[in-house]
Amino acid sequence: MIASIRGILLQKNISSIIVDVQGVGYEVFIPMSTYDHLPSEGAECSLLTYLSVREDAMTLYGFQSAEEKKLFLMVCNVSGIGPKIGLSILSSLPVVAFCQGIVNQDIKALSRINGIGKRTAERLAVELKDKVSTISDTYLAATSSSSSGEVAIPFYTEAEDAVQGLISLGIKSDAARKTIQAIVAELKGEEASAQKLIRLALSQIQGG
């Protein structure tokens, strides 16, 4: 099992990177949250990893923190859930926000994550409710002050909705994510609706 990887970052995209480890290039699939912490191409990078082995493929997944990797594995162990949804969750929400959604049984908020419908959200909420508290002390501190009500995750969800909106308009996935990521960085924490993010993104794409 490949538990971690360290080498030179040869190439990075929103959904995957290539890391050179002593002359061997490893393709590693990553969530958007990990992409945000990557160094520049040509620099050394280090990630925790999980190797998925199936009859038809061997796929390596990478994470910038132990909490992200643990949540990914936890989600993938839920019946009917695979790595694709695991990455989608980490690309849409911080670990703490997802854990809050599970503890609060906030099906509405969980259902808004790309690739997760109401039934899947309900299954995740039921199967993970008693498990997410093992992820980290950070999670415990955050959830202790939020035991009811909706999860405070609108901006992350709006950004993901904007990405999906751009894709539906014919924009390639990587280009959509890079554009939204740049706009989010420019907003410096200011919240915006998916519609506003899409308008800003189209303006940049068409203007470029």
**CATH class annotation of the largest domain:** Mainly Alpha
Overall number of domains: 3
| CATH topology category name of the largest domain | DNA polymerase, domain 1
For the biggest sheet, the summary is:
5 strands, antiparallel
What is the structural class?
alpha+beta
Q: Counting H and I runs of at least 4 residues, what is the number of helices?
A: 10
What is the rounded distance between the termini?
44 Å
List the helices and strands and how they pair.
Elements: E1 4-12, E2 16-21, E3 24-29, H1 32-35, E4 44-54, E5 57-63, H2 66-76, H3 83-92, H4 95-103, H5 107-111, H6 118-128, H7 137-143, H8 154-168, H9 173-187, H10 194-207
Antiparallel strand pairs: 1-2, 1-4, 2-3, 4-5
3D architecture notes:
By secondary structure, the chain is an alpha+beta fold. 49% of the residues lie in helices and 19% in strands. It has 3 domains: 4-63, Nucleic acid-binding proteins (OB fold (Dihydrolipoamide Acetyltransferase, E2P), Beta Barrel); 66-151, 5' to 3' exonuclease, C-terminal subdomain (DNA polymerase, domain 1, Orthogonal Bundle); 155-207. It is built from 10 helices and 5 strands. Strands 3-2-1-4-5 form a 5-stranded antiparallel β-sheet. The longest helix has 15 residues, at 154-168. The protein starts with a strand and ends with a helix.
